[in-house]
User: What shape does this take?
Amino acid sequence: MNAKTPSKLEKVLAAGHLAVTSECGPPRGSNPKVITNKAEMIREYVDAINITDNQTSVTRLCSLAACIQLKLLGVEAVLQMVTRDRNRIALQSDILGAASFDIYNILCLTGDHQSFGDCPKGQNVHDLDSIQLIQTIRHMRDNGQFIGGDDIERPPQMFVGAAANPFADPFKIRALRLAKKVKAGVEFIQTQCIYNLDRFEKWMEMARDLGLTEKVYILAGITPFKSAGMAKYMKNRVPGMDVPDEVVSRMAGVPKEKQPDEGIQICLESIDRLKKVPGVAGFHIMAIEWEDKVPEIVERAGLYPRPEVS
Amino acid sequence: MIVGKQKPIDEIWESINGYKKVLVFGCNTCVAVCHEGGNKEAEILASLLRMRSKQEDTEMDIRDSGIERQCEHEFFESAKKEIEWADVVLSLACGVGVQFMVKIYPTLLVYPGLDTCFLGDVEKPGIFTESCQACGKCVLGVTAGICPISRCAKRLLNGPCGGSNKGKCEIDKELDCAWHLIVERLETLGKLDDYVEIVPLKDWSTERAGGPRKLIHEDV
Assistant: This one.
């Protein structure tokens, strides 16, 4: 696959390197240092940094502004955009706003339901869904047109991504759902955190059988556990998460002070195994409120230094 | 049908308290089926309000009446006398009925006794389930007869989202994931391949987004 946009992430992938991305959640306030400090900590170890968009429906500094902060630092950003909070006017408008700052990557998401966040009595929009958002951006980029058909002066040049959850139900359509996103025009995928490797491998096999890994770059989602408590929480409380019992008991089986090391160890073993899965094009490392561990994970996983592309 | 739920008695009491002649007025169609706003419920509510009036030592005359439907002219004639008697009417119709009555009686005070909830079916006796949002452009033909607009918490046209878990929605473990049901039914119908077809952007102008709607039959 040849790169079609100026995106560094796309170039890394097109050159056949295993890509590494990570993510930062913006603060619940307006201090830009929260973003820039996290970015400085990991910038040399990743190809691009995702900025989440009011994740879990908790109101935070906006993803677009945080991406601009990264851009000003010279760090490649992935603008996450959920369809929960904006109608098609606002979505297109924000895409152009991002394009005006030459933000070259976007991740199209539905977003968690607002009942999980700090405004459970609020309205949700969902004028479009994530698949239709993928179509919209591709239309804006490739045809240089708005949804309404008018021409766009200087269309956005964005590498278009989406999430995939290999673990959600019903499992039988998980690969078909990926096929649907590919049909809509998605170019890269960042998956849900992978703890059930057997099931992920099965999903990848289904994706390969449908020829999807030839058409889309799949970045495997990795989140290290900080503690056994976090493993239990992810297993029981986070929607769409599949944490096998043996992973929880492995975390719980070591003393509390050793649990962070065990979490990193599990994550390194996962990366090692996932590198061998045909079709895995890279890793998306989501170290939740533990960004300072990203450099160590990337180095120990043999993914450092990051390739130079131009 | 339209499903409604009686407002809390304190809220109802606040709206009618202080008026001398109160008519509790039932609507004996949809909201009677859900046991909230029919003529029988009007009778029960009126007697509860009379007890309250006695407890609070107010001088109120609270009566009940009702008609078949508060959303059509033809039924109002039979209750003309009671309505004209009242200082205030507590309507147990849905929001449609309350407003229709206001249209017929521009100077009459009418308060809603129900919260209108949704368009739904009688899943089991006593259980009513939302199944349509009157979006004005039915998609059931491409979603295996299961409506994602009314039954998916994110009204996704190309679902399910990543929060679908064991057939249930991320917002409530008791709530069926509409897209899970759609996929299961597509499979039963031997049409699972249809799932890959992308449902295009929806025209929401036929829904609330397009402003208040009207349907006109020229030949009636």
